[in-house]
Recover the amino acids of this structure.
């Protein structure tokens, strides 16, 4: 099948762009790479050589303004997402932006408002990828009554990324770059939105920074850590279900990565580390559920973005409305923590 050619410009070419977006777009018919602007000209030229991108730009504004760019893929840190997205939409470009959506709710809402002014353009956020192959099955268990009334939702994601004081400072620990995004909070909350389609109220949040200064990997100098090493959130869904999220980067060992849905009829444990789903009806023995090998499950971000452009399909994963919803929860958590922080 012949497709109209789609010319893509890239702003930011970090790890996810190089490992996911560039190969994903390259595998699609009639998609070409026009221009890239990374953090330095040297890194831009390196990416351009590796992936056959036509030219490099001095900064993101050149990419957005280029007449030979139909769509912009934004792979920067969250602090630039809103500014670039709005400029690209105003310039008539489709937008795929990396998650997290923005630095805060105000930026996210501005992005959504701008996208609504250009309904003919596709505006998509890279989705939380952890459960893409499981989502349909989990939603089915919730919708067909297998779990009954959901009473409690718990998320546990613990790693040892910050357990050592010698670990370098990450961009995620710089509020100027990451905003109110904290650890993996937004990723997991987006996943829960996908399953439950409910917005939880933040009742309380507690967090801690145990290593207040870490070495900057570029300058080698110590810089303050502005995002928590560990975070616990207590929330409540409109129908009364409790939400407990514990996210930690200070747990040594193999870590934990689980979501539990406890209902009036059964409990479901989603073990993301093992890629397993365990269903336990009340009074019965736990049993593992096979994740169906659906042809459209898994990572399809670039293909879905291009299909939305060419076939006028609505964006599912992830639209700007959903992004605003998870940013509201993320910022509410940040504010709740700061209200009680010493």
């Amino acid at each position: 099948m012949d497709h109209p050619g789609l010319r893509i410009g890239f702003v930011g070419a970090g790890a996810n762009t190089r490992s996911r977006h560039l190969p994903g777009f390259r595998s699609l018919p009639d998609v070409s790479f026009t221009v890239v602007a990374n953090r330095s000209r040297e890194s831009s030229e390196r990416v351009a050589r590796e992936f056959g991108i036509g030219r490099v730009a001095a900064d993101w504004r050149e990419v957005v303004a280029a007449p030979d760019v139909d769509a912009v893929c934004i792979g920067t840190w969250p602090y630039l997402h809103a500014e670039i997205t709005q400029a690209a939409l105003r310039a008539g470009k489709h937008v795929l932006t990396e998650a997290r959506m923005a630095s805060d709710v105000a930026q996210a809402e501005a992005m959504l408002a701008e996208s609504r002014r250009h309904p003919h353009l596709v505006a998509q956020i890279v989705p939380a990828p952890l459960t893409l192959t499981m989502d349909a099955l989990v939603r089915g268990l919730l919708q067909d009554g297998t779990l009954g009334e959901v009473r409690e939702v718990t998320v546990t994601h613990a790693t040892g990324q910050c357990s050592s004081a010698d670990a370098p400072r990450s961009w995620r620990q710089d509020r100027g770059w990451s905003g109110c995004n904290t650890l993996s909070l937004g990723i997991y909350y987006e996943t829960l939105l996908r399953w439950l389609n409910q917005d939880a109220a933040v009742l309380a949040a507690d967090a801690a920074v145990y290593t207040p200064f870490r070495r900057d990997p570029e300058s080698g100098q110590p810089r303050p850590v502005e995002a928590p090493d560990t975070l616990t959130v207590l929330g409540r869904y409109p129908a009364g279900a409790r939400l407990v999220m514990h996210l930690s980067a200070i747990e040594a060992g193999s870590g934990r990565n689980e979501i539990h849905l406890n209902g009036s009829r059964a409990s479901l444990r989603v073990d993301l580390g093992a890629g397993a789903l365990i269903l336990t009806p009340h009074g019965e023995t736990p049993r593992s559920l096979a994740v169906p090998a659906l042809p459209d499950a898994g990572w399809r971000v670039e293909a879905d973005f291009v299909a939305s452009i060419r076939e006028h399909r609505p964006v599912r994963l992830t639209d700007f409305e959903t992004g605003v919803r998870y940013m509201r929860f993320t910022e509410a958590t940040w504010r709740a923590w700061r209200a009680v922080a010493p």
